[in-house]
């Protein structure tokens, strides 16, 4: 599905990790039209997904700051520039529209898995270690029911009311979802996991164990090995191999696996840009990839001396913004201005004198 009218803008940033967010800020200071597209339902990238509560100790001038707090601060800093953030949208395709920048038409068209399309003159890939995609259940044929009876992301609540649901996984999100469904109107909730040990915090484990003890959540220990279809084509049940080598049939209406997320560079690796060990090769002047108009910053890029640190990504984003501004306005000289003294920058940020 693609939206009828693409969003036309100067630049698109793929990824709302710390570097993508700062990239948008720097492009905004250059007064370019910017849209940010992020596959996860929230901003922050690895900081929010992998270590939200852990302190970071090497950000300049901030002795300690958690991944979550850094994300909030970056979003706060970005807010005055009113740059749209499109969350829960994985960029899946890149199309080249106009090979010659002298033409008035935009250069690139991007499409997302959620049906959005963008047309832009410059693209910044800030995709980090890749899009965080749900780990799939390795049962042959199961993909045929994805989006209908098999849901790797939370579907709207009205879908599950009165339904028999199997949640799979030993993760925090599996346990929390099973409890939420049991509490939220599902007819029957089974938590399918290979054993009775869960990688979750003590408080959640206590709530889960008491829900299992009270019979609100049923625990099924085993692995799915087959999908059983009804005569009308619906997914009727899963075939389970239990830990003690028995086979059983687990009937269901909905299957919600929560096996964790896997970062994947995915389609970006197929866009014909120069790669070195799955990283985009860039120059260190404007962090340009092998194709004019496409830049890459943060963990996704590589160049001699590259270090995957947030502060390095911030530097790259700053220089990339200058390079993009100059490229899009070849007649002008893009000059350096300080936020401390520039009334133009202060006006953009809504600070300073009137
Ligand atoms: C446990 C841990 C601790 C760390 N501690 C530190 C530290 O103390 N100091 C430090 O400097 N660094 C630290 N790092 C590294 C730091 O987190 C990374 O350098 C930083 O997150 C890179 O930011 P980024 O924006 O480039 O990429 P990411 O944070 O990976 O964000 C990339 C974003 O792009 C999105 N994305 C990818 N592909 C697509 C697509 N096709 N469409 C839409 N969205 C897409 C992803 O969903 C993701 O949100 C740590 C990393 C880890 C794992």
TrEMBL record:
Positions contributing to FAD binding: 38, 46, 51, 91, 132, 299, 340
Transmembrane segments: none
Keyword Zinc in annotation: no
Cofactor requirement: FAD
Subunit structure: Homodimer.
EC number(s) recorded for this UniProt protein: 1.18.1.2
Family per similarity comment: Belongs to the ferredoxin--NADP reductase type 2 family.
Span of domain FAD/NAD(P)-binding: 10-304
The protein's name: Ferredoxin--NADP reductase
Chemical reaction(s) catalysed: 2 reduced [2Fe-2S]-[ferredoxin] + NADP(+) + H(+) = 2 oxidized [2Fe-2S]-[ferredoxin] + NADPH
Originating organism: Tepidimonas fonticaldi
């Amino acid at each position: 599905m693609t939206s009828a009218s693409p969003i036309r803008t100067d630049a698109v940033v793929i990824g709302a990790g710390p570097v993508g967010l700062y990239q948008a800020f720097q492009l905004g200071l250059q007064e370019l039209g910017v849209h940010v597209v992020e596959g996860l339902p929230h901003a922050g990238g690895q900081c929010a997904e992998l270590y939200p509560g852990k302190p970071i100790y090497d950000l300049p001038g901030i002795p300690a700051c958690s991944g979550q707090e850094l994300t909030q601060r970056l979003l706060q800093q970005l807010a005055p520039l009113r740059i749209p953030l499109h969350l829960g949208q994985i960029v899946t395709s890149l199309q080249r529209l106009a090979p010659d920048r002298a033409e008035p038409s935009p250069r690139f068209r991007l499409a997302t898995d959620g049906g959005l399309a963008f047309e832009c003159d410059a693209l910044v890939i800030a995709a980090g270690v890749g899009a965080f995609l749900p780990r799939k259940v390795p049962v042959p044929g199961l993909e045929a029911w994805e989006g209908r009876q098999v849901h790797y992301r939370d579907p709207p609540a009205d879908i599950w009311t009165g339904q028999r649901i199997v949640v799979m996984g030993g993760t925090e999100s599996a346990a929390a979802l099973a409890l939420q469904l049991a509490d939220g109107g599902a007819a029957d909730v089974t938590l399918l996991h290979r054993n009775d040990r869960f990688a979750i915090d003590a408080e959640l484990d206590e709530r889960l164990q008491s829900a299992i003890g009270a019979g609100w959540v049923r625990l099924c220990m085993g692995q799915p090995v087959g999908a059983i279809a009804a005569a009308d084509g619906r997914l009727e049940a899963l075939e389970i191999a239990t830990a003690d080598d028995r086979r059983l049939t687990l009937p269901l209406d909905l299957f919600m696996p929560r096996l964790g997320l896997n970062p994947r560079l995915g389609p970006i690796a197929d866009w014909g840009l120069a790669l070195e060990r799955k990283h985009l090769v860039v120059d260190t002047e404007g962090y340009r990839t092998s194709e004019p108009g496409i830049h890459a910053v943060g963990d996704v890029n590589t160049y001699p001396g590259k270090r995957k640190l947030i502060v390095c990504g911030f530097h790259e984003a700053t220089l990339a913004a200058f390079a993009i501004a100059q490229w899009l306005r070849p007649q002008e000289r893009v000059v350096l201005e300080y936020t401390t003294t520039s009334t133009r920058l202060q006006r953009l940020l809504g600070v300073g004198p009137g």
